[in-house]
Write a structure and sequence with these properties.
- The protein is an alpha+beta fold.
- The chain has one domain: Alpha-Beta Plaits.
- Helix content is about 15%, strand content about 20%.
Length: about 60
Amino acid sequence: MKNEWMHVEVERCMHCGACAGTCPENAIYLHEVLVEFNDSCTRCGRCVRLCPVGAITMEAKKK
């Protein structure tokens, strides 16, 4: 199942795989054109910090 709080700017993403490689929950899948985050994502933010082109953003948690 896809989560709704992680977003990738497809135009910026280089598909380098750094985000998937750093994810401790294996929640990131690289497809031919898209990057998908599943519900295993814990919002640790490693992928956001590691992305070399800043293509990944995370929505704030709702209270």
